[in-house]
């Protein structure tokens, strides 16, 4: 683990990945830069945290090959592009934290396949479109943080029933319309 080591002024180029199966890779709070290697999907992580670095790239589609991952934290970087649909293949994912990046496009409906998800942080990006109806399947969701994006549309009525254990709902600073459903709140 190299968390908060603040190694060097910066590390241009590739992020170092272990060659063997590693349960936890936490390289957060450093100054790593460069892209996330496409080979990240070839390692069986339970936790992958590259948060609070200076990573400038898109999220590689290979993350969808990490079928045993429980936590993906790529927050507070300079990631751009779309959230890959392949993340929907990470069947044991419980926490997805992509906040404070420059992600664009729509939220992939494939995230609704992640029935173990408990936390989604997509705050402070440039994500557009509507809340996917596939999110109805996320009955274990405790935190849904979509604030400070460019999301639009009427707040879906199902949001009051679909998340029975929801504790935190942040939709602030978007372009949603309508009212929060009273049932379930």
From TrEMBL:
<keyword id="KW-0433">Leucine-rich repeat</keyword>
<keyword id="KW-0325">Glycoprotein</keyword>
<dbReference type="GO" id="GO:0005886">
    <property type="term" value="C:plasma membrane"/>
</dbReference>
<keyword id="KW-0675">Receptor</keyword>
<comment type="similarity">
    <text>Belongs to the RLP family.</text>
</comment>
<keyword id="KW-1003">Cell membrane</keyword>
<keyword id="KW-0732">Signal</keyword>
<keyword id="KW-1133">Transmembrane helix</keyword>
<dbReference type="Pfam" id="PF13855">
    <property type="entry name" value="LRR_8"/>
</dbReference>
<keyword id="KW-0472">Membrane</keyword>
<protein>
    <recommendedName>
        <fullName>Leucine-rich repeat-containing N-terminal plant-type domain-containing protein</fullName>
    </recommendedName>
</protein>
<dbReference type="Pfam" id="PF00560">
    <property type="entry name" value="LRR_1"/>
</dbReference>
<keyword id="KW-0677">Repeat</keyword>
<dbReference type="InterPro" id="IPR032675">
    <property type="entry name" value="LRR_dom_sf"/>
</dbReference>
<keyword id="KW-0812">Transmembrane</keyword>
<dbReference type="InterPro" id="IPR001611">
    <property type="entry name" value="Leu-rich_rpt"/>
</dbReference>
